[in-house]
Amino acid sequence: MVVSEHIRKKLGTLPHKPGVYLMKDRFGTVIYVGKARDLRRRVSQYFHPSRRMGWDLKFNALVEAIADFDFHLVRSEPEALLLEGRLIKEFKPRYNVSFRDDKRFLMLKVNLNDPIPNFVLTRLKKEDGARYFGPFANAGALRHTLALMRRQFNLRGCRAFTPGANDYKHCLYAHLKYCTAPCVGNVTREQYLQQVRAACDFLEGRCREMQTELEAEMKKAAAAQDFEKAAELRDLLRDLQQTWKRTEKFERLPYTLPLAIDPERDLAELAKILGLPAPPQRIEGFDISNISGTFAVASLVSFKNGRPDRANYRRFKIKTVAGQDDFAGMAEVVRRRYARLLNESGNGSGADSPPHRTAQSTDGSLPLRPARRLSVPFPDLILIDGGRGQLNAARAELKRLGLENIPVIGLAKEFEEIYLADKPEPLRPGLDHPAVKLLQRIRDECHRVANSYNAQLRLRKISESVLDEFPGIGERRKAALLKKFGSVRRLQLASVEEIATVPGFGGKAALELKQFLDARRPPPANPLPPAD
Fold first, then answer.
1. How many degrees, rounded to 5, is the angle at CA 46 between CA 43 and CA 52?
2. Per-residue confidence at 182, pLDDT binned at 50, 70, 90?
3. Do 297 and 236 lie in a common domain?
4. Are 127 and 170 found together in one domain?
5. What is the pLDDT of residues 186-227, one digit of tens each?
6. Of the candidates 126, 74, 99, 108, the residue with the CA atom closest to the CA atom of residue 248
7. What are residue 418's DSSP bridge partners?
8. Which of 390, 406, 440 delimits the end of a domain?
9. Shared-domain flag, residues 129 and 238
10. Most buried one in 19, 35, 197, 324, CB count within 10 A?
């Protein structure tokens, strides 16, 4: 591989600083995201002749595909790790393996509106009025720091939402003097809140006195040849320093769906290999996304003249398919999509009603009325994400609707094989073929829309399950609450007396649940200024 002059000049502008780099192919698609302590040294290694002589086929394929790269500077290596994870989750580069799941970095959360606030670990930030610290790149350092912070500021470590007086005699933290035990009145709530606020200042790196004390104790233990204690203090001091490092809140980077260099050529090549009479001006692609049969959704993306037509994207919830059945799910979505277009065109949904036809009189002489003008015309080509099975399911539904004249193909992911209805063997034009690149862009956009919709539904489910955070609640009691009130929002508006009418909730449990929900109610929006 010969390094292009553009990349060679760009390598000379890289600084010797920490940051994140994004490798892109000739279409502008992000194919790899990496972090580096020294950007110039790390990125330059990709283009060293000695590296390209190795036997790592994946690395060689990555380098061959690189046409350009971008970089973003950060202040430290932990920041680079956080930004790298976020970008990988956003772009899903094909050559990245780590960070592609839904797992996020740990954060520390405390809700000052709780009766007795408590610090807890979480990975999801919600609009619940709580204070969040992080995310933190080193989970182990954060856990050690949390344990030290609880001992230093005498904070409670029990998981109960409102520990009561009956729990005090069993509370080990109170007996060991780790906690000031506000649950039994040893201190008032305001006094305990001062301890919590001091711990918040500590997490923000404002308390440097503890670092000085730990350094003095470490040196004292080393001088007394108590090396085991000195090593423990050294590790604790290192964990504190890693936790104290402030991390930047990264905004969404200005990347969009990459466009083709020559979409007209790609469409012409696609028509050529598929045997179409003309390049397809409008292509619609379908994809199914589900996780073990739950949150089954589908996406429809529309490309016009080889470019995304986002105004005509659609998202579907699978309604008639139980379990994980991509074939049946694809059939349902295709049926719903084109039955709707047929109804909009005024042609019905029978096999004798092809699209774009004007309704005729009984003798065929004069038209009774013109069909309604479609806001979106029927596509010139339909792309199905999948192999022969998904393709056959879609073709069967199109035939029932009388739309078998619309060309439909399937694109299998593993070898980028193109399945056609009238050919027993799939086409394999090659990964570098312009038509394959065009179909890949459509398929990847289908993936993005379907997966983002699936993730949105899962996050909505998580937000609706705020009851799971209430200590001691089970599925039966939670189901009884939702059956009574219908949603968490209505439950938050209910009174203590109304909650007490639900089976399993007496007066005390209803009061604790009401306090729990009030503490997690999102803050009200800023009111509008009064009119003049």
1. 170
2. confident
3. no
4. yes
5. 777 887 888 888 778 777 765 555 666 667 777 887 888 778
6. 74
7. 411, 427
8. 440
9. yes
10. 19
